[in-house]
């Protein structure tokens, strides 16, 4: 609702209330103050009604959108109810609109209370004029004023309390919405960071390994002196593998291909995990000239995510053997052990210091451990300089039917 529409609506409700009360009071005045009444009573009662209507038209209607502090409207209401009550005690019904004006058109709780007392005093003064000052009349006046004023104060305090609670809840709601927006922003940032980490691991475990293989094949070709067809074929295959892995990443998929290329550089048809390990071993043998023995005959069934994790660990392990171990034989075994799929990659190479390797920069062993941790797995590295390396990765089994 626009500000103009809200103001028109609020003004309309006030006009409806004042109009209804004024018509009712006018009818009562004419009915109660007939020919038998003093000649001044009916004009006085009607004057009070007219004051209320005219005051709202001239002052109150312009302050409906910002009623706080409109003391002029409060004064008009007090005078109107006093004048009307002086004409006839029946006109005290005007309190049903005078008290709301006292609450609505004041700027503070103290001002509202004073305005309420003013309305009560005006009614009391009107009663003294209209019904007299005998003990019985004064008792009636005191009872009427006390009852009306007490009810107005009680209702006003209750409504003010509800309004205060509403404002406080509004502030809390705004703070909650702000906190939710901050949490959403943090979640987006965390999601983006997690995606960057995932891409970094995928790039390291796939494309980076392919590029490393290309470099080593190029170095081998240079050492051979003449470029052999076999070496060129391996370079082409490695390049196609990198291209296929890149396309898989762009498509947000991690294919179980063992980094082997398909036709025209596309990704190869997906394999099961033992097949992907066999293809990885075959490619490693041809590129590095290292004997690779694989045994996945006891491989347990895994879901897609766990298969990708195991394959990436195997790729990283053989890549490390190629780059650092100077091994002559690499063994890859995939089986089941204590409710986990266990991958063991062992070489007879130079070995290394695991503590120094973990402290070094890069995505090698630390990245492998992080990848395993994401699926509840673990990594154990048994290596010593000069005694080869044994890497054991375990992934909890996914017990769905395969």
From TrEMBL:
Q: Which UniProt keywords apply?
A: Coiled coil, Kinase, Membrane, Transferase, Transmembrane, Transmembrane helix, Two-component regulatory system
| InterPro entries recorded | HATPase_C_sf, HATPase_dom, His_kinase_dom, Sensor_HK_TwoCompSys, Sig_transdc_His_kin_sub3_dim/P, Sig_transdc_His_kinase_ChrS
| Listed GO CC annotations | membrane
Annotated coiled-coil segments of the chain: 169-196
Under the heading SMART domains, the entry gives: HATPase_c (SM00387)
Task: Provide a Gene Ontology MF annotation, just one.
Answer: protein dimerization activity
Under which name does UniProt file this protein? Signal transduction histidine kinase
